[in-house]
Design goal:
P-loop_NTPase, 246 residues, single chain, binds adenosine-5'-triphosphate, ABC transporter ATP-binding protein, ABC_transporter-like_ATP-bd, Rossmann fold
Length: 246
Amino acid sequence: MVAPPDNDVLWARALHYQHPDGSPALCGVSLGVREGEILAVTGPRGSGKSTLLSCLSGLLRPRDGEIWFNSVPVHTMGPVVRERLRRERFAWIDPAPVLVPELNVWENAALPLMLRGAGRRQAKTVALEWLERLDVGDCARRHPQTLRQAERQRVCIARALAPAPTVLFADEPTAPLHHADRGHVLRTLTTAVRSHGITVVLATHDAATAALADRTVALLDGRCVSTVHLPPVPEAEGRAACSLSV
Ligand SMILES: Nc1ncnc2c1ncn2[C@@H]1O[C@H](COP(=O)(O)OP(=O)(O)OP(=O)(O)O)[C@@H](O)[C@H]1O
């Protein structure tokens, strides 16, 4: 095994993953994610973005290859240790909002904090702060089924940010939002992660979303294709990049 570079929070080498029905999803993907950066994983539908995030976060175990988190091998961990890693150090935003229907909004947002051992009062205070930032503070006592889809997604984003994870995996996080809402939610998300030093791996096929990232890795048919960086655009919050297949 080759040790990963010191400044990479996440480092993957030669990842191969095949779905149980035999569909190939990753065919030798290697990448590094530096501390505090927002890395966009782009590519057309079916290119392997979600599968890559699932492998990097320990949700799926690759058939071959290595994944290291802060110089600790994830690919050799058993399911219980990977589960603990995901709960304590990672957060995840899905393209569709999934909340616990029995809990109200602030309880949903506070849940990961309480699972990490925070007291109910402290977790509630932090959750309410994040709900306010995401403009759903006034929904705190309602139940998810009474919210609009876009509001539920904002709650999911607050829930992911509240525990200040080391790495946030965001799979098309603004997919259920109207175009007008997307810019605001993405700016809130990027401002929050930058101010808290949270590393983000963001799957998207939207060029405007990818432009908020520091760096872009493009996938095609489960393989990385080369990435060309553009010079920084002053008015953009991140640095744009475009990708060329070679
Ligand atoms: N549960 C599954 N079972 C079988 N094949 C799957 C499954 N999930 C994804 N695949 C296949 O694996 C490949 C990669 O899919 P993946 O969802 O990772 O791509 P993606 O780039 O995230 O696509 P999208 O943007 O549509 O989410 C595709 O060929 C897809 O059809």
